[in-house]
Structure formats: structure tokens, C-alpha cells
Amino acid sequence: MPKVINLNIENVDQLSDNLSNLTYDRNKIKTGIAHIGVSNFHRAHQAFYIHELIEKYGDYNYGICGIDLRENDRKIYNILKDQDGLYSLHIKDASGVHKTKVIGSIVEYFYGPENPMAVIERLSKPDIKIISLTIAEDGYHLNEITGEFDQKHPEVAEDIKNPFDPKTVFGYLTQAFKLRKLRGIAGCTILSCDNIKANGNTMQKSFYNYVDKNEPDLLPWLKKNTTFPNTMVDRITPETQPKDVTVLKKEYALNDQWPVVCESFTSWIIEDNFFNNQRPQWEKVGVQFVEKVAHYENLKLLLLNAGHTILGILGTLNGYKTVQEAANDKDFMIFLKSYMDNEVSPILNHSGIINLEKYKKTLVSRFKNPYINDSLSRICSESSSKVPLFILPTLKQQLTQDHATIANVSFLIAAWCVYYDGVNDHGNPYKITDNLSNTLVRMAALSQQNPIKFLEIEPVFNVLNKNEIFVAAFVKYLNYIRKHTIKDAIKDFNASKI
Ligand code: CS2
Q1: In angstroms, what is the span from residue 233 Cα to ligand 1's centroid?
Q2: What is the pLDDT of residues 307-346, one digit of tens each?
Q3: Which residues pair with 92 in a beta bridge?
Q4: With a 6 A CB cut-off, is 386 part of the ligand 1 pocket?
Q5: With contact defined as beta carbons under 8 Å apart, do 108 and 125 qualify?
């Protein structure tokens, strides 16, 4: 067996010929982007696009400075430090065609918990033209009900007390922009790459709210010196499994401590609204620049992300572990298809920008990709932030119609309540990971006696518990699911027996 090589810049020339190795000189790369949240998704998506731009077009101007801010990012910090920012990306097509590439676009890395001032300094430097973010759905702290930024969130409150030792992205950005203003350095673009509705506008609102309350003198400068393009990001990227590391050692004699696996499909649509027009020529590598991203984003959140959530919740109750297992279950797919066709498609205003039938068909084959092993636990984590973004807009929109079609969506929300009972139909428990888990579990337990209790979770449902049509459907399905296995309940639902 060949000697296993540790991935780092010194060893990169010795890597096996059966992977796509770096073809460019990393010393030539200048940093132009600071990215907060060096997740698997970032490494499969934005860092990949920058890599492609360098490799194919020799554009060395937008290397990435990776930044993580949370205590539990220490592992990726240590690994990327060890590997000089290099990692391997495994692009797996459903047909069985797979590519492995070494990605070199992350050329610097800063870690907030170790040295917050260093992060603030780095963000304030004039070479950073774009600060991009993947901070997850729950990272924006906008209250669904009031539309206001949640100043009372414990981490936000801490940042207000200790502005020079921040924990949140808002605390960091405020200090960095104060320095830019003080030093006469230009502003930059803030590019949200999260799956939230109008992600740029939402980030702008959250950030401006935070600044307005805590550093009001900075706000007029920020308004002139920052832009927040909306974006739609898409590439299914599962969590890395220990076996991904082992396979690399065996097949490529490569020791990459944290490789990334992703599907071959990728899409990125961005509103072309960059500060001083400074941005990479991403269109050369397949990024679409548009005036308004809303239609594309709506389609993706309400079909792809919602589809994931549906398979995640129903699949977990049935004892499935991965998206592809659930997507290969005929009964689940009948349910998902009727949700997409009867409840989502009629409310989508896609203005002919996309062939909807083709989009849905492609989605199903993406979910079935046998090489991705996307865990349902990833999909179900933080559902209390995802359901309001991916599922409830369909319900709310349907409820505004004369003949609201809400059977599937109500069934799903009832199943979501049962999900917090924490045990699948084989009697096996599963882990619930959610910021609101205490509330969710308690309200699901109370709903055993009084079903509508679950709908009283205000940050999720707001006033939906007052809608009689929805409440009646929810109660009917909840009672049914609690008396049957999820599989039987879905079959009966599909056969219109409930
Ligand atoms: C998933 C997304 O987190 C989720 O629930 O639906 O991470 C999804 O895989 C990506 O948005 C795909 O682009």
C-alpha cells in the first residue's frame, strides 16, 4: 500500500495522480473576501467557485480569508491550520461519476474565540471587498412576529455588554466597520449565503437594527458604504462521515482530516448589487447575476428545502437515517409529490423563469442520489428555524385562497409535533438538536392531552393557532398519526382515507 500523505502545502506535489490536484500557485492569490462560517456548505460552494475561477481563468484577486466565531468551530480551525487551508472536495454525481479535487482558495483563516481583535482588524482591512456569511437560519435573530432584531438574545446581550469581545457576527461587524469609518477605509459588500428569504435584505435589517440601538453614529456611514445583495445558494452537502476520511486514505493515499462530499449539481444566483461594483467575475464559472432573486429563492426554499424537511421528519419517524432512503420509499414520494404539485406549485410565482416540472423532477433525482448519504439528523436539526422558512409560507399563502389546499402541509406539521415525542416507530429514540428543543418537546408532550398546545409555540406559529381551518386539519391528522405508524398514516393519507 502506498504511503498515506498528510494534506498540506508542503506535500501537495506528492499527491496521487487519480485526483485533481492544485494547478495554480497559491502564493499569487490575494485575499479579497472574508467569509464567516467555514462550513461544509461554504467549502462545497463559494470556495469551490473561487477555486474554479483561479484554476480556469487565473483570477487571483478574490482569495478567501475564512473566519469562524463559535466555540464549536475549534475543530475546523485546528484542521485547516494543520492543512494550510487545503481540503479535498468529493463531487458525486448520481450516475456514479465522481471527481475528487484539492481546493486551495481558502488562503487565510482567523478564529474569533482565540483572538477577537485579530478578526475585527482583518475584517476592517481595505483588501476585503466582500464579507460573506453562512451563519445558518437561526443566526439572523430577526423576530418573525415583530420583524425586529432580537436584542434580548443572550449572545446579542453579551455583545452589547462587551463590544470588544464579541460573540455574534453583528458584534464583530460593528467593530470592524467602526474601524473602517475611523480610518477612512471604504465600505464593502455583505453577502449572505444562507437559506433564508431575502437573505441580503434580512441581514441588512438585522445589522442596521443592531447598529441603530448600539452604535447609532455609525448607521449613516454604513448606509452609504455597504450593500447587501440577495442570493440563492444551492448544493446538497452532507456532514462528513468518518468513512469519507477512511476511503480517501485507501483510494488516494491521502490523509485529509475533514474532506467535503457534495452532489454534482450546483447553483448560485446573486443580485448584482456589489459595493463599488467590486466582485469576482463569477459568471465565468456558472454563477447567474440577476436583478431580483426572489422567484428563484422562493422556488428553492419552498420545494427543495421543504422537500428535505418533509423527508426528514417523516423519514425519522419511520426509522430511516438518510434522505435517499426516504426518497426511495414510494409512499413518501407520493406524499411529497402531491405536496409539491397541489400545495406549493399553485402559489409559486415563478414568472416563467424556470421549467417547474423539470425542476421538480430534477429535485427528486437529487434526493435519490445514492452516493450522498445526507443524514436526516442534519435535515431535522434546527427545524424550529427551518419550518417557518420552508413550510409555513406555503400554508399561509394557501390560507389566503378561497379554497385553501392544506392537507399535506397540515399532516406534515402534525407529524412534526409527533417528531418531538423523540421515538421512532421501531421504538428507537433519536437526538433532537434545536435551539428551541425544550419548548418543542414540552408543547408536543402537552399536545397529547390537548392537541392545539403545539400550535401555541409563538415564535414558530405566530397567530396560525387562531386559524380554524388549519387547526381543524392539524388536530385531525395529529390524532390519526398518534394512533398509527407514520407509514400507515401516510398510506391512508395518500389513499384519501383520512
Ligand atoms: C437542507 C439544506 O439544511 C437543510 O435543511 O435543506 O442544507 C440543503 O441541503 C441546501 O440548501 C441545498 O442547497
Answers
A1: 9
A2: 999 999 999 999 999 999 999 999 999 999 999 999 999 9
A3: 98, 263
A4: yes
A5: no
415-456 pLDDT, tens digit per residue, is: 999 999 999 999 999 999 999 999 999 999 999 999 999 999
- The 10 Å CB-count burial string (b at 16+, else e) for 450-462 is ebebbbebeebbb
pLDDT tier at 146, thresholds 50, 70, 90:
confident
Strand ranges inside 140-292, DSSP E: 188-192, 226-227, 231-234, 254-255, 260-263, 267-271, 288-290
Listed in sequence order, the residues at least 6 apart from 318 whose beta carbon sits closer than 8 Å to its beta carbon are 326, 329, 332, 424, 425, 485, 486, 487
Helix, strand and coil percent figures for the chain, each rounded to 5: 50, 15, 35
Return the amino acid letter for 439. T
Mean pLDDT of 202-209: 95
Reduce the DSSP state of residue 106 to 3 states and report it: strand
- 280 alpha carbon – ligand 1 mean position (Å): 25
Other Cβ atoms closer than 10 A to 477: 24
Give the closest residue (by CA) to ligand 1 atom 4. Answer: 379
The rounded Å distance from CA 458 to ligand 1 centre is: 24
What φ, ψ does residue 31 adopt, rounded to 5°?
Answer: -75, 135
| Ligand 1 nearest atom to the CA of residue 305, by list position | 6
pLDDT at 1 over 70: no
Can you tell me the distance from the alpha carbon of 367 to that of 323, in angstroms, rounded to the nearest whole number? 6
The reply to whether the predicted model has a pTM over 0.70 is: yes
State the Cα–Cα distance between residues 301 and 197, nearest whole angstrom: 8
Q: What's the confidence (pLDDT) of residue 353?
A: 79
Cβ of 195 closer than 6 Å to ligand 1, yes or no, is: yes
Nearest of 401, 425, 416, 488 to residue 455 by alpha carbon:
416
How does residue 145 score in pLDDT terms, banded at 50, 70 and 90?
low
Residue with cell 428553492: 300
Q: Are the C-beta atoms of 23 and 103 separated by less than 8 Å?
A: no
Residue 484 per-residue DSSP state: S
